[in-house]
Amino acid sequence: MANAELQALKLNSGECIMVGDLLETDIRMGQIANIHTALVRTGVAQKEDIALSGFKPDYVLQSVQDLVAAAD
């Protein structure tokens, strides 16, 4: 799905970041498409889950607002 969206939007994976709250779906999809990943902890995944998962996000954020603040 991510690769199809990259093609449709004419974007390179290096220009994007996959943001999500699920390691097994959101973070995994980003990694498969070679997109940087950010896990937001406002959803299901908790900090302890990262250590147990095979899917390690590039960034761990408390909320999506942290991503906006980093872009400024």
Describe this structure in words.
The chain has 72 residues and is α/β, with parallel strands linked by helices. It has helices at 2-9, 23-32, 47-52, 64-71, and strands at residues 17-20, 36-40, 59-61. Strands 1-2-3 form a three-stranded parallel sheet, with helices on both faces. Helix 2 (23-32) links the parallel strand 1 (17-20) and strand 2 (36-40). It starts with a helix and ends with a helix.
Find the CATH superfamily.
HAD superfamily/HAD-like
What's the arrangement of strands in the largest beta sheet? 1-2-3
Largest sheet: 3 strands, parallel
The run of helices and strands is HEHEHEH
**Total number of beta strands:** 3
InterPro entries: HAD-like_sf, HAD_sf
Organism: Paenibacillus chungangensis
Pfam families: Hydrolase_like
Protein name: HAD hydrolase-like protein
Give the topology.
Layout: H1 2-9, E1 17-20, H2 23-32, E2 36-40, H3 47-52, E3 59-61, H4 64-71
Provide key terms for this protein.
single chain; 72 residues; alpha/beta; Rossmann fold; 4 helices; globular
At a glance:
This protein is α/β, with parallel strands linked by helices.
